[in-house]
Structure prediction request, 436 residues.
Amino acid sequence: MTRRPIAAPLVVLAVLLAAPPLRPAAYPSTPLEKRIKAATDRLAPELIAIRQDLHAHPELGLQETRTSAVVADYFRRLGLEVRTGYAKTGVIGILKGGKPGPVAALRGDMDALPITEEADLPFASKATAVVDGRETGLMHACGHDIHTTVLLGVAAVLSAVRADLPGTVVFVAQPAEECCGGAGMMIADGAFKDIVPQAFYAYHVDDTQKAGRLGYASGFMSANVDGFTLEIKSEGCHGAFPWLCVDPIVAGAQVVTALQGIVSRETHVEDNTVITVGSFHAGSAPNIVPRSARLEATVRSYGEARRTVLRDKITRVVTGICQAAGAKFDLAYEFGTPSVYNDPALVREALAVAGRVLGSREALVEQKPEMGGEDFSAYGKIAPAVMFNLGVVPPDREATAVHSPTFVADEAAIPIGVGLMANIILDHQARAAKAK
Prediction:
């Protein structure tokens, strides 16, 4: 099919020259926004230095004693009310604004990972720890040093404009996101017993986007992280005479295969579901049918209803196969971290602010929900919550994945994240105060 040209090149050029140029949204446009930007710009070198210090001194979950001391000291110097002792190392700082309004909260997680850093940075971690009986390096390979630094930065910026801040902002420095469900532990320890936020906010670094871009999802953002352990039992027998006992390896292999039938044939195509058997251990010799086989699996889905349905289906499949094989078994199913649900109203409010602050709606990247887990979901049980993905890919490097020993983040994302979140929270507080 031949297409006729729409216009000659010179005509197109003339049209482009006559059209009004595309201009980014004006920011800062109000006196308060100008003060926020000025405070953010002034703080940027200090915050980058804090981030580098935290990066050089990573600590595992529930062991973040140095990090929490840095946070608590910074909050005190800002004049915040500081509370400690939640989930062992958790800290909250409470900033009371000069105007009446609701309570909002910003979460930053503090823990690092048992990974030996390989990044070529002058402040690369040299810290080590003994994990599972072996010495390993420690590294902020998931950006929690940036999350914590942004938390401190937003606290400092909002403190600088506290007279114009409606309501109260609670800054939550949370331990143990990676390992132990620190969010739930802080809640269980009473972090919000007498000061209950009406909205929760958080960032996660985004290893796919450059600094200055913000990823978002409205609704589900991360998956339920559930799983099970299955032990299939046998009397054991010689491999040359397998009819003398139940073969737990054969039964286990049938379970692994049948589980994928749940995903491909019992699950609606729009209900994203993953069942992965990541561990299957049995036997010690090629000519012996072992006395047991042990399988461990992770199960990912979205929403509370879906996780219950999957548990029931998996239990049915395991029971049926083991009974058909005449095998005894123990199935231990566990509901872990729930899926993060981003409140659509909070997302809409924040995106209106973000488009202006970042200079263009093109900086806002809509993303599909992920199958990873995040314990920020625990706060969503208290009040509407939203987590955004903060672009951190350096301009002169290829993207490196989080949880990688070579992960490197662009520190330019720190002041960007601070200024943006300060404006988002101020906007929310003003809207909520006005609505009352």
Q: What stands out?
A: The two ends are 61 Å apart (CA to CA). The chain has a mean pLDDT of 94.
